[in-house]
Amino acid sequence: AQAGQAERSPATPAAAAMSFKPPPRRGRGMQSGARCWAPHHAKAFTEATVKEMLADGRVRVTPVDAEDGEPWECSPEELLPRAEVLECKANMDDLPELHMAGVLANVEELYGRQQPAKPGAGWSAIYTSVGPVLIAMNPFKPLPLYGREWASKFREAGNSGNLEWATKTLGPHCYGTVEQAFQGLRSVKHQSVIICGESGAGKTVTNRKMIEYLLDAEGGTGGAAADKRRIAEANALLEAFGNAKTVRNDNSSRFGKYSQLHFDGELKVRGFDIEPYLLEQSRIVVEPAGERNYHIFHQLVRSDLAAELGLEGGPKAFELTRAGADLRCVDGTAFDDAEDFKKQRETMENAGFAPDAQRPIFEAIAAVLHLGNVTIEGDTDTSKVSPDSAAPMSKACELLGLDPEVLSGALVRQRTAKYTKNLGVKEAMSQRDVVAKAVYSRVFNSVVDGINERLQQKGAQAAARGQEASLGLLDIFGFEDMPVNGLEQMYINLTNERIQFLFNTVMFERELAAYRREGVEAAFETPPSNLPCVDLFTAKHPPGVVKLLADQVNVNGKDGSHLVNILNGKLKDSDFYIVCLPKMMTEIMKAKRAKWPSVPTLRYDECFQIKHYAGEVVYTVRDFLAKSRDTLLPHLAEVLQGSTKPYVKELFEREMESGKLTVGEKFCRQLESLSDKLEQGGNVFVRCIKPNPKMIPGLVDRPLVLEQLVCGGVVAALEMRKYGFPDRMAYASFVKEFWILDFGMETKKTVPPRRHAEDLLKVFVGEAGQRYAFGDTKVFLRAGVLATLRAYVAFRSFYFAVMVQRRWRLKKHKKFIHAITVARERISAAVEGATEMGLAEVPEVAKAAASASGAVEGVWRALEEARERHGADTPRTATPKIAMDIAAHAKDEPRLRELVEKLEAAIKMVEARKAKWEELLARKLAQTRKEALAMVDRVEQMEVGCKAGGSGEGLPEHVQCVEACKLAHERLDAICRQDLPRLERDGPQGMDLSREPGGNEDPCPQARELLASAAELVAAANEKAQALGKVRFKFDQEASGLLSARDEALKRLEALQAETKEAILGGLDGVG
Are residues 734 and 693 both part of a single domain? Predict the structure, then answer.
């Protein structure tokens, strides 16, 4: 969340796993021939086999995939065991080999699968789970995974108490996770969903989908529907004011937020509020390279209000939007800011902001844009607003309701009750930026406050009656380690450190506490707590980082090395604090420059290092004190409080009331308040994962994904869930749910519940020890045991139901009638399904459908005629008569069943053919994408050589080389981002479903043509690069000759110096 964020390059497996404590079995006992996962520089881990054990204790491994290279040596501790058959599980508790390599392979395998179009047709391609943790991979494309059909399935399962069954059947899903939290409100009145992940991982979309699900849960019309619309619009509204285009994401949240829905005693939505965290203020006055300012700035300068607000000229006319004016979306399309602004105004109105309430908001934002164009001139001691800036200053003050002369004077002077001090240019520009940031940040907070005021009323009424329940969604920024980590990164990582402590508490400490309370031996050891790392920042006595920063702000201390010396002196004894030394910084700079393309030089005396749960991070102390000040200087606050605009005046009227707390102190208060709230209720977690930095669908950057899985605590959670007892039930509840499995229930009514539970588990699961354990009041079960028992219950319940229904049908003479009805329904469903899938016209299906329909319709007509004849009779007397009338057709039942089965088999066979065609297409497109990306690498290498500088720059050959590389790169980018997704949507070409596809079938000839066209451009670029190389070689030869001649001339001149000196000493005139 800082200016100039750079793309993260793949980490090594060792770096990614820096916080992960591997299971005891890792790599030990490996023998020659053993299957294993071995570390790999590009894949993180790859399938391999132990080739031999070496004398020095190391091992030599052979990769299964020949493309992974020749056999190599490594330490046994780096290896992980590999199962003979790699199973893919949506619930990773069930993985047979549970470690980071297995998790990575499982996530990648699911991500590569085709997404089922309907619920129940298969697992989701992007969601997996472990316990209360949902893992969400960003698909970078729309998927048929949301909407009413999906939502209704999870909602029905939650209301009927079958959510676990739904999750097993439908697979993990964000709807299932939020439904779990919603159902938790019935027992604990506060629930939270904690959504974490790095920029571009999909947090914003996941948060939005969950809120939409909750708002749709109860339906409703009129006022209720209007309130729900406002809640939905409020979330979308904040995206315009708090989101921006970054190098990682077109719609990146630049603030954290806790969105809380309030429910009454009947769990109906009655209110909504949002609490924002750490808005990125540096972006307001500086657009980072390759990024844009907040969406609302770019929307406003291209809106229909631009002329009224003095914003003519578009984004390039304003300093705060100029750098991002021409940036496009990741997929190459342009931002439609004008249309987005129209939608934004509608969104604001739907959220409760009437047009007259919108106007002052837009005026204040326009004033910030004009302030950005105000320049200061002068020297280091005095300054003034440049005369050229009179127009933007005047317009900014007009919009803010201020006197231009008063504000101009306040920017270039610092005034107190005792003195007035002139400021230099740099200080005055800093004050200008402080005002701009203060105005925008308070506008942002006012929008949040306005949303909360409009949506909290009913929630407050419910709370007053003591009936309130609440469900919050925390959308929080992920852990960051950037080329330069400043104050923003420090608070982001502090937040993640605190959330990780909560995660550890939920996943580990609460498990252990439950075991201890029940007298059950724990299945794992308690991991080290990271709370001391949090205290290193937040402690007051002795002071932590935040308190030391505040002390320096209050005494107007110095930044940079002075502040680092204070931190080093006070915190050096902490186990989580590292003093930066020159040699250490040299190694750190090497590592950073190997990871990022551009890293500025960092001074050791301006840096300190922290041992976070996700690894060691270096923080650079530049402008820490300036950024820590959250209040305006008194004379600036006084100017803004004197505004003639009621809206602006209200923004700053509480300025003096806010006290002298720094940004860090206020943030720590917010963080602790949030932590208390989370710890008092139930929590589920969502870890959003960014599959690759280029945001290309279907591509998995394995090291990057592994780094996120490990740093997010997912792998550690899997280990705990696998070796713990995640499910537990009171003995009475267990017997109440599973009594139906016991044939001797009548004889066991007096048996104590624990004894009864022991008997049931012994019969249906086996002896105690491995799969379950008995506590004082509860039985503890391994993952999967409850599901197995419930499957037995469902089977037996179904058996009883079928037996009763069969006897009733036999008694009422309805068996054959039922069979006819079922056959007709099956045929209708089969034909409808075939039509939906485009299979109805295939000869095998059409023929089978005609035969089955013709046979069943004859019997159905006879049945309808019999019902008509006996319609006047009562059902009790009519049923036997109808059965007698159609008894002659009873012999046709086997034939009808056979025809129906043939129809279904024909559809299944043709559907399988279609799947093979689609699989051929998927493989073809994957190979095409792989070849295209390989060409991209070649072009990028040529571009580096072409742009490397040196001789020949500016020559026609150099220009031609640059242009050829650009054309090739643009064509390949279009193939990856536009053409291949389009071909995937279009489906296989020339697909003939009347036969099996052969081995030589080409489901997509156009892919070959695309590669050929790209190859021509790459070849042309290569030709231009070679021509440039020849020119450079010739130039270098000629230059070498000239340099040799120059050296000879210099030698001759040097030889004359001695003679010249003698002549001068001899008194000869004119020498020299």
Answer: no
Contact 984, 921 (CB under 8 A): yes
Q: Is the pLDDT of residue 569 over 80?
A: yes
Q: Are 277 and 238 in contact (CB under 8 A)?
A: no
Q: Provide the 8-state DSSP code for 65.
A: S
Q: How do residues 77-98 score in pLDDT, each as one tens digit?
A: 888 888 767 778 888 866 656 6
CA 493 to chain centre: 16
Strand order in the sheet with 778-781: 727-730, 778-781, 772-774
Domain that holds residue 76: 34-81
469, 263 contact by CB (below 8 A): yes
Please tell me the predicted confidence (pLDDT) of residue 398: 96
Query: Tokens at residue 722, please?
Result: 């696998």
Block residue for tokens 């690498």:
937
Q: Is 615 annotated as a binding residue?
A: no
The verdict on whether residue 43 carries a ligand-binding annotation is: no
Specify the pLDDT at position 733. 83
Separation of alpha carbons 992 and 974, rounded Å: 29
Q: Is 200 annotated as a binding residue?
A: yes
- Proportion of the chain in helix, strand, coil states, percent, rounded to 5: 55, 10, 30
Is 198 assigned a ligand-binding role in the annotation? yes
**Any idea what the CATH number is for the domain that residue 769 is in?**
3.30.70.1590
Distance CA 121, CA 119 (A): 6
Measured CA distances, 892 to 47, 103, 252, 502 (Å) = 56, 54, 65, 66
pTM: 0.66
Nearest C-alpha neighbor of 117 from the set 922, 839, 916, 837: 837
Residues 477 and 363 in one domain: yes
The H or E element spanning position 880 is helix 875-885
User: Edge-to-edge, what's the strand order for the sheet holding 72-74?
Assistant: 72-74, 59-63, 44-53, 35-40, 80-81
Residue 21 lies in a domain: no
Within 8 A by CB and 6+ apart from 112, the residues are 125, 698, 700
Structure tokens at 561: 């090395």
pLDDT for position 1069: 60
Q: What confidence tens digit (pLDDT) does each residue in 869-887 have?
A: 877 777 666 776 776 777 6
CA dist., res. 182 & res. 1040, Å (int): 78
Q: Which of 13-22, 113-122, 546-555, 674-683 comes out lowest in average pLDDT?
A: 13-22
Higher pLDDT, 99 or 390: 390
Q: Is 606 domain-assigned? A: yes
Question: How far is 691 from 138, CA to CA, in rounded Å?
Answer: 7
- pLDDT tens digit sequence for 886-927: 766 767 778 888 888 888 888 888 888 888 888 888 888 889
* 849 inside domain: no
- Which residue stretches of 739-874 are H helix? 753-764, 785-811, 815-836, 843-869
Q: Are residues 566 and 465 in the same domain?
A: no
CA distance 782 to 98: 15
Average pLDDT over residues 391-405: 96
> Residue 356: CB partners within 8 Å, gap ≥ 6?
none
- Most confident of the ranges 90-99, 136-145, 712-721, 853-862: 136-145
Task: Identify any residues that bridge with 277 across adjacent strands, giving them in sequence order.
Answer: 256
Residue with tokens 């420059």: 593
Q: Are 797 and 807 in contact (CB under 8 A)?
A: no
Give me the pLDDT at residue 10, please.
33
Are 363 and 378 within one domain? yes
Same domain flag for 672 and 763: no
672 labeled binding residue: no
Say whether 176 counts as a known binding-site residue.
no
- Looking at the structure, tell me whether residues 665 and 705 fall in a common domain: no
Would you say 199 is a known binding-site residue? yes
Query: How much is the mean pLDDT over the chain?
Result: 83
What span, in angstroms and rounded, lies between the C-alpha atoms of 911 and 921? 15
Give CA–CA dist 131/729, Å, rounded.
Answer: 16
Asked which of 49-58, 448-457, 765-774, 819-828 is least confident by mean pLDDT, the reply is 765-774
